[in-house]
Amino acid sequence: MSIRTRMMWQAAAGVALLGGFALTAAQAQESVKIGLIVPMTGGQASTGQQINNAIKLYMQKNGDTVAGKKIEIILKDDAALPDNTKRLAQELIVNDKVNVIAGFGVTPAALAAAPLATQAKIPEVVMAAGTSIITERSPYIVRTSFTLAQSSTIIGDWAAKNGIKKVATLTSDYAPGNDALNFFKEHFTAGGGQIVEEVKVPLANPDFAPFLQRMKDSKPDAVFVFVPAGQGGNFMKQYAERGLDKSGIKVIGPGDVMDDDLLNNMGDAALGAVTAHLYSAAHPSAMNKEFVASYKKAFGSRPGFMAVSGYDGIHLIYEAIKKSGGKVDGDSLIAAMKGMAWESPRGPISIDPETRDIVQNIYIREVKKVDGELYNIEFATFENVKDPGKTKK
Amino acid sequence: MTVSETLRSQVGTFAVARGRWHWPEAVFWGLAVACVFLFPNRYLILTEIAWLALFALSLDLILGYAGIVSLGHAAFFGFGGYAAGLLALHHIVDEPVLALIVAGLAAMALGFVTSFLVMRGSDLTRLMVTLGIALLLRELANRFSNITGGSDGLQGIEMAPILGTWSFDIFGKVGFIYCLCVLFVLFLLARRIVHSPFGLSLRAIRNNPLRASAIGIPVNRRLIAIYTIAAFFAGVAGALSTQTTALASLDGFAFDRSADLMLVLIIGGTGYLYGGLIGAVIFKLLQELFSTLTPQYWQFWIGLVLVVIVLIGRERMHRWALYLPNLVMRRFGAKAPIVLPEGDAT
Amino acid sequence: MTLLTILFDGVAYGMLLFVLACGLAVTLGLMNFVNLAHGAFAMTGGYVCAVLVNRSGLPFFAALPIAFLVSAAVGALLERTLYRHLYARSHLDQVLFTIGLVFMSVTATDYFMGSSQTFIKLPDYLQGQIDIFGLGVGRYRLMIIVICGLLTIALQMILSKTRFGSRLRAAVDDPRAASGLGINVPQVFALTFAFGCGLAGMGGALGAEILGLDPYFPLKFMIYFLIVVTVGGSSSITGPFLASLLLGIGDVAGKYYVPKLGAFVIYTMMIVILIWRPNGLFGRTNAR
């Protein structure tokens, strides 16, 4: 008897399954569709939210029609899990018939979607993930964020030239962390510097205390840091707590650690940190001032580099549609995107026609207090930096 | 002598009756097959449901039938996934079905080795030991990034056609049919196992280990056996996920995966095999529905649903869900239906 | 010298873990309720403290007790309205329910506070290090040790010396007999639950500086709380306390001396201890 009811339950569930899909069936429409796949939940959520915010902001300012086509954004949350990304990308391409897929918070997500972009001949605009190899995985990938090599090699060169002899490194133990470390090491040691201590921190790491103690014991001139977005603040606070700032040990690194999103809340501990990065909210240009002000007004916080990457990403898509005269097939769009150059809130940037990767200025910045708020103040510029991860080959 | 023989025959009849096929089961599988034709746009999520269902089935084998709670079942999922990925990537075993079996066996070996660690202690201890094992494996996979690709995951996997005939397509049709077939075959296997004397002895152990050992059931050996078998199922689920997405990543081992799995199984109900399958359908559909409606805040609504499910009570929900079918059944002269017995381990 | 610093850091870390987790030890060990949403109460405390200090400019030490009270009040409210219906239910139901609560709290926090890390602005006198006989001692960590140490002593006193403590122990040992003796068991449980939540809230506020504070706090640290409680054994307060210290020191020392194995330390310790003593270091032999 009980078996029978149990079976009924199974049949009922089957019916529910049928009903559920009927509800979410998609319809095709005449417009340009952009599938935006970013992490909106989970540990990487702030990346996705910044990108999403920036795109909303851009579309508010510039309208949602380009070359007679209505732009439609379909937002999907992949929680930074590559198998999700792949499924969502595939569904967007097959069911929603999107013209462009964009976003991609982490490298594995961007890589997971790459074969689909190739197969479907659809541009994949990478707005966050930063490993060099990404753009090599498909002729349809364009990147508007950055590569880790860009900032890490330059901070390495800069450190070697500016009186820093001994460096201890603290990097998160995952692919981007290792990338940052290797590029930095290569350029820093080539410039005559010496690595005195090398520590890899587990990714899920609540307390930096023991690692910082090791840094302190090795008595370097500076500590090179790369930790994922979000952990930077904790690192800086504990760095100051341990008195490393007082013992004259500088913090250097790629600018991810000093993301504008978090910087102001880190407190004075962050003062004096020198980082190399693509964007600072304090970048002295009229365009950036306007961008920061309107972003702050709309979302109540300062835009970080992820927001700028998203902003530039949607700009690139808009311009490509304009340039191709409303042709939105993948090949026309990619052709239009190649070599495109424009002025972004971060400064002048362009898309390398050969690698489809971003070419941009990398700024060396120091954290200073301006009007009671902490900012990364740019004091040196390396112009038109291509991705060193590729030019090396 | 005669008494025990009657008893034996009675138990036998009962077990056979339970093991017999019933028409609603046919309806269930019929609907599953119908999905192939009804939803040509949704093969990908259907595929996910299929391997999640298999994964949940695996947890049901140990939780619902043997009473072993685990919060680290993802260990086998991830292990199977990486095994399948590496086999395909290095062209060791190209044929997917064969690779699937090899990956399952690899996870099975892991299950056998680790089973000795979960034999002792209370539920909480088991939860934490299994969880610890999964997390350790995740760290190991991260450490040996030259083999596993670290946090970038295994990239560049290309799947050979199944049995040399059907290759995976972008719409995921072949992938889904493949997953469904594997799910069905393994379901049959699981069904056979739980209705065998071995399966019955597991239930005895779950209900009272002390009494079970008193009547001569080798408790530990049986538990090790089912844990190992469940590891095989989970490994195959992981391998299916890798083969259909051509990806293997560290997330395979993640705590969230084990925790979600637990939710899936509890929603569907433990101890009757279909619980995992139904739970997978409901959980994925809810997730899909909410995350389409609100990509940023869907977790809130999932959470709310979970809370409401518990507050209303799962048994009552099951009764409601059965109300209409029961009505129909009464029309056709069936005897009065009764409530669904829950085989929950507590 | 370094050894002492490591020891000090480890103790501070362990103490913090203890304050965060002891509420869970109480609900799990004494009331036999699996409350995976424990971290949500810690997060509540953390955010209350952050809002009070950063936006209203309240002094840190004034905000701490408020964080305690607010978390305790939220805990009491939820206990009265939701949790108490679930004491008699199966563990699986409890898991489902509390995970649901975690999901809701995570998203709600994301909605109201944003998904970025939040920091609590500390007064200057809590920042940096002081020198004690040449030993660099972090002021903040010193404060954590002092506060958590006092709390632990108070907790132990309440449990063993006060009337409430003996009622609680009676209610736990045998709820039916206890209520027969005129003890209002539901009330005792409610108070205990609220107190545990309050402690977690305070832990969350104290820990924001070291562990970080973002909407995913309850999910990220759920594992750590569970580790402390399982390793310590959930039948007393001493067990989790010693386990926290052991894990804290072990984790910090392990990461300092063998950083290459940093991530493995805490999990390996847990597995080894649990295999050696399945009911935790200080558990009763027949723990539930």
Please give a structural write-up.
The complex is a heterotrimer of chains A (393), B (346) and C (288). Chain A has 393 residues and is of the alpha/beta class. Chain A folds into two domains: 186 residues, 3-Layer(aba) Sandwich (Rossmann fold); 160 residues, Response regulator (Rossmann fold, 3-Layer(aba) Sandwich), CATH 3.40.50.2300. Chain A is 42% helix and 23% strand. In chain A, helix 2 packs across helix 11, helix 3 packs parallel to helix 4 and helix 11 crosses helix 12. The longest helix of chain A is centred in the N-terminal third of the chain and has 23 residues. Chain B is mainly α and 346 residues long. Chain B is built from 15 helices and no strands. In chain B, helix 5 packs antiparallel against helix 11, helix 8 packs antiparallel against helix 11 and helix 9 packs across helix 11. The longest helix of chain B is centred in the C-terminal third of the chain and has 27 residues. Chain B is globular, with a radius of gyration of 21 Å. With 288 residues, chain C is an all-alpha fold. Chain C has one domain. Chain C is 72% helix and 3% strand. Chain C has a two-stranded antiparallel sheet with strand order 1-2. In chain C, a hairpin with a 2-residue loop joins strand 1 and strand 2. The N and C termini of chain C lie far apart (43 Å). The mean pLDDT of chain C is 86.
Summarize the helices and strands and which ones pair or pack.
The complex is a heterotrimer of chains A (393), B (346) and C (288).
Chain A: H1 2-24, E1 32-38, H2 45-62, E2 65-66, E3 69-77, H3 82-94, E4 100-103, H4 107-120, E5 124-126, E6 141-143, H5 148-161, E7 166-172, H6 175-190, E8 194-201, H7 209-217, E9 222-226, H8 231-241, E10 250-254, H9 260-263, E11 274-277, H10 286-299, H11 305-323, H12 330-337, E12 341-344, E13 347-351, E14 358-370, E15 373-385, H13 388-391
Parallel strand pairs in A: 1-3, 1-4, 4-5, 5-6, 7-8, 7-9, 9-10, 10-11
Antiparallel strand pairs in A: 2-3, 11-14, 12-13, 13-14, 14-15
Helix pairs in contact in A: 2-11, 3-4, 5-6, 11-12
Chain B: H1 2-19, H2 23-38, H3 43-63, H4 74-89, H5 96-115, H6 123-143, H7 145-148, H8 173-195, H9 197-207, H10 209-214, H11 219-245, H12 255-268, H13 274-293, H14 298-312, H15 314-331
Chain C: H1 2-30, H2 38-54, H3 60-81, H4 91-113, E1 129-132, E2 135-138, H5 139-161, H6 163-173, H7 175-180, H8 185-211, H9 217-232, H10 238-257, H11 265-276
Antiparallel strand pairs in C: 1-2
Helix pairs in contact in C: 1-5, 1-8, 1-9, 1-10, 2-3, 2-4, 2-8, 2-9, 3-8, 5-6, 6-8, 9-10, 10-11
